[in-house]
Amino acid sequence: MFDDEGSTGRSDGGPAKPGSQSALRMRNQLRLTDQLLRGGPATQAELSRLTGLSTATVSNIVKSMQQAGLVTLTATTSSGRRAHSVRYIGDSSIAAGIDFGRSHLRVVLANRSYQVVAERQIPLPLGHDATAGIAAATQLLEELLAEKGIARSMLMGAGAGIPGPIDRRTGKVIQGAILPEWVGINLHERLKSALDLPVFIENDANLGALAQITWGAYAAVPNLVFVKIGTGIGAGLIVNGDLYSGSIGVTGEIGHLTINESGLICRCGNRGCLETIASTATMIQLLSRGRDHPVDAEDIVGHAKSGDSTTLRVLEDAGTAVGRALANISNLMSPDVIVIGGPLASLGELLLAPIRRGLLRHAVPVVGENTTLATSSLGPRSEALGAVSLVFQHGPSLHNM
């Protein structure tokens, strides 16, 4: 791979010849810009690793782009050293990220600089069907555009995710979704028709994983697992820096790993799946016994932080089971980092400690000891932010704009 930029090419102001130094510089700048557009802000060292360009070449290109007003540099730290995070600001196009949940809808609008320009979450009734959910998303998107004075022509596309598997061959939601009313619909076609935009769809856990390496703190991490613990439990897998989708797009269904062969029947039809032990739905059911009013996920967080022994015991059992499932994943792919997301992520170490115990107990020692376990810093926005990144990765690039 050549990235040498010794000479300046033509001096007559004409177009660069193929193979000239100026043409090579243009290709290298395009490569670096595409990385910033698709991967978000990164340090110059990270850009060098991700693009394959030398550090000197990256430094020269960044300096030139900064002088041209295409990027900004912000002081940061990387591996304990001072560095500068490079952010692209030379494109005004907007992407929409849509997160369809079991009882909520979140829409985010963000620009190519990976800055959120508008965001809102609204409740959706339990049991809502696809027609109602898509109509609500369409209306909320139009409201956000109007409120921020954003012309619809600036929208380059919309990414969307749901809590359930999607067959990439057909674009259809398949059995196993937390939204059973959506099973069988072609989400891609329905949403594309309603929004009149290019649309890109994914499972919500996959979007959460994508958000960690684009919006989160793990841009330089090649192998990562994002686990969303909610009404269901799913995982998104980043392998060698890319989202892993398998042969048909259905991956990371760790909620249906068998933990107890004599356990409860799961909604998938099997017995003793992880979801029957560690989902928030199971925790809520256990902790609501004997109470006048059922608890919710926020109550679980509050009770755990206040030291409620029953809540902590439920979290211990659930976390240990999750850790056991993650040990199987870790033994298979040896990730650098496992990030825990979902409504309980704010518990931090109260949630991570039992997960870590289960992971270390069941993983190959050298794998478990070298896998970093963390909670997501992106909160409930992870899936919507990942949906935005999906547009930036698969929407129009500088090569065809």
TrEMBL record:
Stretch list, region Disordered: 1-23
Matches recorded under CDD domains: ASKHA_ATPase_ROK_BsXylR-like (cd24076), HTH_ARSR (cd00090)
SUPFAM superfamilies, A to Z: Actin-like ATPase domain, Winged helix' DNA-binding domain
Transmembrane annotation, as ranges: none
Domain HTH marR-type: 33-82
MF GO annotations: DNA-binding transcription factor activity
Pfam families given in the database record: MarR_2, ROK
Organism domain of life: Bacteria
Stated family: Belongs to the ROK (NagC/XylR) family.
Protein's UniProt name: ROK family transcriptional regulator
Species name: Arthrobacter wenxiniae
